[in-house]
Specification:
Largest sheet: none
Number of strands: 0
Number of helices: 6
Strand content: under 5%
Radius of gyration: 16 Å
Order of helices and strands: HHHHHH
Length: 137
């Protein structure tokens, strides 16, 4: 049985955060905000900064939990190669992220485009985390 690599989990969480910042910022930020009904405030107040900081901390914790669980899944299946890591990431994404995200379309009335922005981020994030967790020796 392999040991849990906590440093790889930490790095995976940080990489996922940076990807999320890029994904919902420069890559798809304007589309995401418009589709979500979020307007950029004219002034970033201390209260807004405080709320953003809570969001970043909460998201980092969520990313670390995801990396920890994914690490355990990869170990349970004795994944040692990049191809296996990507296969596990895809299966986890397809089985858990794709179906649970559908609620935003069917129940909240959000557009499909927003759904695809979210689930594509999840796929790329899980893929990167799986590669880091598998290949970090």
């Amino acid at each position: 049985m392999m040991e849990i690599n906590y440093l790889a989990i930490l790095v995976s969480g940080i990489v996922a955060m940076f990807l999320g910042w890029s994904w919902y910022g420069p890559f798809f930020g304007k589309q995401w905000m418009a589709l979500s009904g979020i307007a950029m405030p004219p002034v970033i107040t201390p209260e807004i900064k405080k709320g953003m900081m809570r969001g970043y901390i909460g998201t980092l914790i969520g990313s670390l939990v995801t990396a920890f669980v994914l690490s355990n899944v990869l170990m349970a299946f004795d994944v040692a190669a990049a191809s296996g890591a990507l296969r596990v990431a895809f299966i986890v994404w397809l089985g858990f992220f794709v179906p649970t995200g559908l609620g935003m379309v069917f129940w909240e009335g959000k557009p499909w485009k927003l759904y695809f922005i979210h689930v594509s981020y999840s796929l790329v994030s899980l893929g990167l985390m799986s590669l880091i967790l598998t290949l970090w020796k």
